[in-house]
Design the sequence.
């Protein structure tokens, strides 16, 4: 089994065998996702540990410009999914806590991500389904950080971890984004998260 497939499945023996067979640089043909990314996305704690020990690049982002996960790092996707243990692993391995993704969309769910048509637009706090063409939603400048998406999705433990690791509490999407100027505090819905962000100096 190739490393990517083993990592995706959470197959610990398969990952070990693939690493030993020097297949550590295999990527997904379609989505250009690293094994570490897909393991982080799915919360496979042991596999993430294996890959990090084998020297996986903790900050390598997806790079296929035709996929809606363009620019997502392992830390970003783990934060998005609320995988607190994986977030801790990645931070200890030196993940860039303030590295933003390349898109400005929060997505409906992993089952719909694969056809790249259905997204959730949370602009102005309203959840609205849109049907879009994949080629029409690629902005060009800095977007959402791990702290931003964790705050928006209500992952309090992850927010706490990221703040402790030095995340920029007021870093907002840049010019050209639907989310321009909106801080993590401005999109946080849960009172616990709002309190943490405010205590860290967050501005609305």
Sequence:
């Amino acid at each position: 089994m190739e490393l990517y497939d083993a990592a995706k499945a959470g197959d610990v023996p398969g990952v070990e065998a693939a690493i030993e067979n020097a297949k550590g640089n295999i990527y997904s043909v379609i989505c250009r996702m690293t094994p570490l990314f897909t393991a982080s996305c799915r919360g496979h704690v042991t596999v993430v540990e294996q890959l990090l020990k084998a020297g996986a690049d903790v900050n390598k982002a997806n790079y296929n410009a035709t996929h809606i996960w363009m620019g997502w790092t392992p830390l970003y996707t783990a934060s998005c999914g609320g995988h607190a243990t994986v977030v801790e692993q990645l931070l200890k391995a030196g993940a860039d806590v303030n590295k933003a993704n390349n898109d400005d969309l929060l997505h409906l769910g992993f089952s719909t991500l694969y056809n790249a048509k259905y997204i959730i637009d949370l602009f102005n706090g309203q959840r609205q389904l849109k049907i879009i063409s994949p080629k029409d939603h690629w902005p060009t400048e800095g977007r959402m950080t791990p702290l931003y998406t964790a705050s928006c999705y209500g992952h309090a433990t992850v927010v706490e971890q990221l703040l402790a690791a030095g995340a920029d509490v007021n870093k907002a999407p840049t010019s050209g984004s639907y989310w321009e100027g909106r801080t993590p505090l401005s999109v946080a819905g849960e009172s616990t998260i709002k309190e943490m962000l405010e205590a860290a100096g967050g501005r609305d």
